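Tip: read the tokens left to right.
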């Protein structure tokens, strides 16, 4: 299942989301030329990615920040940017530009630290914006649990787009990350599940003051968990395949 959009229009232009997406893409393009050189890319990631054992020993805390703008490939980058584009604009609209930027960075730093705690002896470099974006998803769940999200379901040759509430999509995603956290060994590399799970929790907690200022449960009662403004409506284009009527 792939989320492709939500029905929750933003009240303002999400300049910070655009800035973060541009920064991630430009940084990736900056080292794209060495992706096919194992020695060069490994050295690059060694210098700028999170290496838990190094941070646990008190060195290179700066990589908690720099790693947030590095990705291991095109699909890694594209997936993260898609999630940021879908869920980031609404939180930026609620928080304001500067507060959202600080929230995003704090979520990423928190996710990185949780990853270090989960594998303090690991020497595997870890990169990606997914910890920070998981924080955005946690905040989105708190603020707009019933906003509709369009999901693309792909089953071999079966494709279908359908809408589900955000709490279902985000809950399933979080459950998958948590189960992955329990079933993986972070010392061996792979997906940084604890960074995803931890980042989600950090983002949700950091968003609590905003939710309380909006009225807490009263905010949900006013909106029934939906966006506090009319939802975006999408019309699927009609099929160009001619319909043959039965005689």
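Filled-in amino acids:
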């Amino acid at each position: 299942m792939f989320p492709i959009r939500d029905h929750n229009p933003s009240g303002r232009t999400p300049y910070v989301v655009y800035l973060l997406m541009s920064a991630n893409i430009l940084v990736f393009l900056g080292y794209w030329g060495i992706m096919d050189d194992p020695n060069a890319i490994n050295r690059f990631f060694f210098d700028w990615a999170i290496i838990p054992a190094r941070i646990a020993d008190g060195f290179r805390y700066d990589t908690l920040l720099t790693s947030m703008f590095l990705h291991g490939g095109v699909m890694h980058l594209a997936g993260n940017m898609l999630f940021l584009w879908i869920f980031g604009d609404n939180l930026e609209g609620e928080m304001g530009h500067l507060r959202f930027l600080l929230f995003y960075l704090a979520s990423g730093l928190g996710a990185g630290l949780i990853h270090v705690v989960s594998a303090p002896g690991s020497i595997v470099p870890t990169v990606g914006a997914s910890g920070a974006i998981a924080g955005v998803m946690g905040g989105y769940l708190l603020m707009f649990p019933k906003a509709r999200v369009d999901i693309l379901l792909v089953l071999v040759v079966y494709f279908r787009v359908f809408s589900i509430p955000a709490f279902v999509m985000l809950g399933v995603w979080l459950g998958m990350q948590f189960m992955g956290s329990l079933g993986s060994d972070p010392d061996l590399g792979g997906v940084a599940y604890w960074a995803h799970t931890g980042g989600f929790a950090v983002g949700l907690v950091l968003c609590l003051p905003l939710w309380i200022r909006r009225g807490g449960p009263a905010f949900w009662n006013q909106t029934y968990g939906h966006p506090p403004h009319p939802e975006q409506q999408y019309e699927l284009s009609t099929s160009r395949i001619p319909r043959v009527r039965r005689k």
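The longest helix spans residues 74-95. The CA atoms of residues 50 and 180 lie 20 Å apart.
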